[in-house]
Design goal:
Number of strands: 2
Structural class: alpha+beta
Helix content: 55-70%
Distance between the termini: 61 Å
Number of helices: 3
Order of helices and strands: EEHHH
Strand content: 15-25%
Radius of gyration: 23 Å
Largest sheet: 2 strands, antiparallel
Shape: elongated
């Protein structure tokens, strides 16, 4: 348990106790994520005054998941893999002709 750290994260006024790896960058990343969530929830609260807090959290989650899906699509490596296969085939053909 020495390599674990207990922290409390506040999201939308609620405190969540977490046990994480004892790494400064891990704690900083979690705190930054909580801040980002709180910032977006606050934007929704300002924009839609009479809505439920659950609605703000749901829309915030949706926003982050959509962004994550966009990033996954951008990091599609299949075209690169296909290009490498094609180059490998061409190289093999060239080497077999020169034997």
């Amino acid at each position: 348990m020495a390599d674990k750290l207990s922290i409390n994260i506040n999201i939308n006024g609620r405190v969540y106790p977490l046990t994480i790896e004892r790494k400064e960058e891990k704690e900083a990343k979690i705190r930054k994520a909580a801040k980002m969530i709180n910032d977006i929830v606050l934007e929704y609260k300002k924009k839609y005054v009479n809505q439920d807090a659950q609605d703000f959290l749901a829309m915030t989650a949706l926003q982050f998941v959509l962004k994550n899906l966009d990033l996954e699509e951008q990091s599609d490596e299949s075209p690169i893999v296909e290009e490498i296969r094609s180059l490998d085939e061409q190289l093999n053909e060239f080497l077999s002709l020169n034997e």
